[in-house]
Specification:
- The protein is an alpha/beta fold.
- 43% of the residues lie in helices and 14% in strands.
């Protein structure tokens, strides 16, 4: 068996373990009682958490609207009356997804590995001339790929984190123009369960050292959490908030590129442990809309509730968030708007 294949199988086994075990063990989290606790839980659906809500006049932007929890998020927000701007990697994908849900939707193109596309997407959204009440940074790739660079940086990090930073920073004035703008970062528990021990291994972002797909995914999801934290400090406001969520282990297309035994386990056997799409979208929809948590910022949510993490983690590490922000500014250069 060649090294690559052996490494893949080892990763597969550890990946299934890291994915499945927390579902049985409570994931090392408990309610963060500094914030309001909701009546919802892991089995709540996006429709349930918005029942009776009228979102007419509100605008949401959902990245990755054509698949998985992004699609369900768009569907439910539009059903409740919001105008939803849905992004797809091609206009065709975004258009088909938008046309398949009821309510008011606008398709736009966003390819997160291409920073020009991120800027162009923001420009297209600005032309719509509406404040953004809910910016839901949902699109992402899973941890099933071989090492690749995009814009000189490890690709999962580029797609899941850097591309969203470019988009967010260009759209920030529109979110700040909303009466109460909410930014929701779709992170993952892998941000503390699979990230490198030091959190972000800055000296290994360009493939300088060992590549572990699960660590790369964990690192990208930790970066989502640290960006959320940094934004909450930067905005320093209850008017415009920034929170990170974990949707749960959800039956989506994220494992589509997983191959072999692991692919079979992940996409079939493990389905019994997964949330449905309706349940998986609930937390991000709750955090984007619910009046109970108005003004809450810089928090971590899962199962529709704010959580503290009772395991070693870097999710709330302000010094690391600041360092990541400085490195990010350097990596993105002119792709970031002047502030
Ligand atoms: N499913 C889970 O168990 C789970 C757990 C924790 C966190 N999450 C997070 O939940 C979010 C949504 O994932 P999902 O599970 O719903 O997966 P999914 O069904 O695969 O949806 C992912 C979405 O992201 C889009 N996307 C992928 N690469 C992109 C790129 N380079 N540029 C722009 N868009 C891109 C996809 O577009 P295409 O369809 O065109 O590829 C798709 O619309 C992700 O951030 C993921 O990390 C998921």
């Amino acid at each position: 068996m060649d090294m690559r294949r052996r490494h893949f199988i080892q990763f597969a086994i550890s990946g299934v373990a890291v994915t499945a075990l927390p579902a049985c063990s409570g994931e090392g989290t408990s309610f963060d009682t500094r914030y309001p606790i909701s009546p919802y839980d892991a089995s709540s659906t996006a429709e349930e958490v918005t029942e009776g809500m009228d979102l007419s006049g509100k605008t949401a932007l959902v990245t990755g609207c054509n698949s998985g929890v992004g699609y369900e998020t768009m569907r439910v927000l539009a059903m409740r009356g919001a105008h939803v701007i849905g992004t797809g990697r091609t206009m065709e994908k975004a258009r088909i997804a938008c046309a398949s849900v009821g309510g008011e939707t606008t398709p736009v193109v966003l390819e997160l590995s291409d920073f020009d596309s991120c800027v162009a997407c923001a420009e297209a959204v600005k032309e719509l001339g509406r404040p953004i009440d809910m910016l839901i940074l949902n699109a992402g790739v899973g941890s099933f790929s071989a090492f690749e660079l995009a814009n000189g940086v490890e690709k999962i990090f580029t797609v899941n984190y850097l591309g969203h930073v470019v988009l967010t920073m260009h759209l920030l004035p529109l979110v700040q123009a909303a009466e109460k703008g909410r930014i929701v970062h779709v992170g993952s528990r892998m941000g503390y369960m699979a990230a490198p021990e030091e959190g972000i291994d800055f000296d290994n972002l360009r493939g300088e050292g060992k590549y572990s797909p699960s660590e790369a995914y964990g690192r990208s999801k930790l970066a989502n959490a640290l960006f959320s934290l940094k934004l909450s400090k930067m905005l320093n406001s209850e008017k415009t908030t920034s929170n990170v969520i974990h949707p749960g282990f959800v039956n989506t297309n994220i494992g589509r590129s997983a191959e072999g035994v692991f692919g079979y386990l992940y996409n079939n056997v493990a389905n019994a442990l997964k949330k449905t799409l309706e349940e998986g979208a609930a937390t991000q929809v709750y955090v984007a809309t619910n009046p109970l948590i108005e003004g809450v910022t810089g928090a971590y949510f899962k199962d529709c509730n704010p959580m503290v993490i009772n395991l070693p983690n870097h999710m709330f590490d302000e010094a690391l968030a600041e360092r990541l922000w400085q490195e990010t500014r350097f990596m993105l250069g002119d792709y970031l708007p002047a502030v």
